[in-house]
Amino acid sequence: MTSAVEVRRSARRSRTVSAYREGDRTIVLIPARMSEAEERRWVGVMLEKLAAQENRRVLGDAELTERAERLSAQYFDGRARPASVRWVTNQNTRWGSCTPAEGSIRLSHRLQGMPEYVVDYVLVHELAHLLVPGHGPGFWRLLEAYPRTERARGYLEGVVSADRLPHLPAARGE
Ligand SMILES: [Zn+2]
Predict the structure, then answer these.
(1) How far is the CA of 155 from the centre of ligand 1 (A)?
(2) Is there a domain that residue 30 lies in?
(3) What's the domain range around 8?
(4) 62 Cα: distance to centroid of ligand 1 (angstroms)
(5) Total of domains in the chain
(6) Ligand 1 centroid, distance to 107 Cα (angstroms)
(7) Could you read off the pLDDT of 116-134 as tens digits, one per residue?
(8) 139 in the same domain as 79
(9) Measured in angstroms, how far is the CA atom of residue 104 from the centroid of ligand 1?
């Protein structure tokens, strides 16, 4: 699918680039003083970014619970029994949390759109807490069952440090 792209230059904009769909057109807003080469580059970046946002499929809470049950079966012989798994939006400093007494797991909505193996890692991590509280050696031994633990932790650390960098232009808003 291709759609027309309309670039609008704005003198009020100094640094930010943003883009949104308007019917079948895509509007890209850029600072007035941007060069044509920069314009081409940014239009490409913003189109990819919009497409990525639109392709994100967010699992519902029921699917999330099913997925956690599957992961528990796969890595913990089904010993971790999640009663409920849901997304929460009030959790900005932690990726996941759990209440072992209730078997409930909560995942930060910030994980939505991240690679599947990263979301799975956070699920496996919280599932492991249903079996072992805290982050002692016994906990990490459990996590060794999940082959992408190190990779996922590296990914999440990267996200955290990127958050501390000066802001890159956002796809929407100013
Ligand atoms: Zn933990």
Answers:
(1) 16
(2) yes
(3) 4-55
(4) 22
(5) 2
(6) 12
(7) 899 999 999 999 999 999 9
(8) yes
(9) 14
